[in-house]
């Protein structure tokens, strides 16, 4: 979903900046070598402060001292406005000068962030407005990533995002069962989890027929496959394809194929997608002579889900973080 600036004004959350915040921002600013760098640090400090206040009010635990924005050397050498959310990761809190224009984001904070919050600081520096957030960056008009006003989600959506990161039920449940979490955000950056291979290294040439191409997501950025054991003599093949056709959204296609060298799936094999609570929300079942099963859905960064293959009493499950 996208929003215009009028809608952002409606959902922006304005909070006061106390004297302690202004004094600390002045202290950090006074340590900088130039007026421009001092203003950058002052605004970064105030942006982090107000987001920290908001999360504290909402019962989210944070640690200001662990952020680079609270580190004197990091403040001096980089343009950082990060806030450590305990148990989730670092949230970037970017001060926005013009609420109707994309806000550039410096390269040093493009990675290692669980989300980006846009903050507008009043000219008096006595209050600041949390304009919204985005879990991922989008390319700017001239290429580099930026915070686009139209792509910002309301502050309350940030709470949902953090809740998913802090309480990944599927991930927690499966971790207890010894199942590792595959991180799809890293897949899109080229870092594939162990055990997953290129599709043509797993499927046979016969399975990679022209019909196979018609089943794939358009503009798939990543396709990987692995063998899964579900109590039959030969392992089956699970394939995942990822596509990012809309800002902040990942389209996911899960397919299940017979063992390489065989033409059809065993009957009564189930392919299931589990939501964060472990509940089945998508399911497909093989009947007879089916050569594949397929399920498609979309998710946003921070969401978790499971893919389960089941035959009789035997199941194999993979857990994923988008």
From TrEMBL:
<dbReference type="Pfam" id="PF08852">
    <property type="entry name" value="DUF1822"/>
</dbReference>
<protein>
    <submittedName>
        <fullName>DUF1822 family protein</fullName>
    </submittedName>
</protein>
<dbReference type="InterPro" id="IPR014951">
    <property type="entry name" value="DUF1822"/>
</dbReference>
């Amino acid at each position: 979903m996208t929003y215009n600036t009028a809608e952002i004004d409606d959902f922006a959350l304005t909070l006061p900046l106390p004297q302690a915040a202004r004094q600390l921002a002045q202290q950090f600013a006074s340590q900088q070598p130039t007026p421009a760098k001092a203003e950058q640090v002052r605004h970064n400090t105030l942006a982090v402060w107000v987001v920290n206040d908001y999360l504290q009010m909402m019962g989210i635990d944070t640690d200001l001292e662990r952020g680079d924005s609270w580190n004197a050397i990091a403040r001096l050498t980089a343009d950082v406005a990060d806030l450590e959310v305990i148990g989730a990761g670092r949230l970037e809190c970017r001060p926005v000068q013009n609420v109707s224009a994309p806000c550039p984001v410096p390269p040093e904070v493009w990675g290692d962030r669980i989300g980006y919050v846009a903050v507008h600081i009043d000219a008096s520096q006595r209050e600041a407005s949390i304009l919204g957030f985005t879990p991922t960056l989008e390319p700017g008009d001239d290429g580099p990533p930026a915070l686009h006003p139209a792509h910002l989600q309301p502050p309350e959506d940030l709470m949902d995002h953090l809740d998913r990161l802090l309480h990944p039920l599927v991930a927690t449940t499966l971790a207890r069962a010894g199942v590792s979490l595959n991180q799809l955000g890293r897949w899109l950056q080229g870092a594939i989890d162990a055990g997953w291979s290129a599709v043509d290294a797993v499927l046979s040439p016969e399975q990679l027929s022209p019909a196979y191409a018609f089943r794939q997501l358009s503009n798939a950025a990543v396709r990987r496959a692995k063998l899964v054991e579900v109590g039959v003599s030969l392992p089956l093949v699970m394939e995942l394809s990822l596509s990012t056709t809309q800002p902040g959204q990942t389209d996911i296609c899960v397919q299940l194929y017979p063992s390489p060298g065989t033409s059809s799936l065993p009957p009564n094999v189930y392919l299931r997608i589990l939501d964060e609570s472990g509940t089945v929300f998508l399911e497909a079942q093989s009947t007879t002579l089916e050569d594949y099963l397929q399920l498609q859905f979309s998710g946003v960064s921070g969401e978790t889900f499971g893919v389960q293959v089941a035959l009789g009493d035997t199941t194999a499950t993979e857990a994923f973080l988008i």
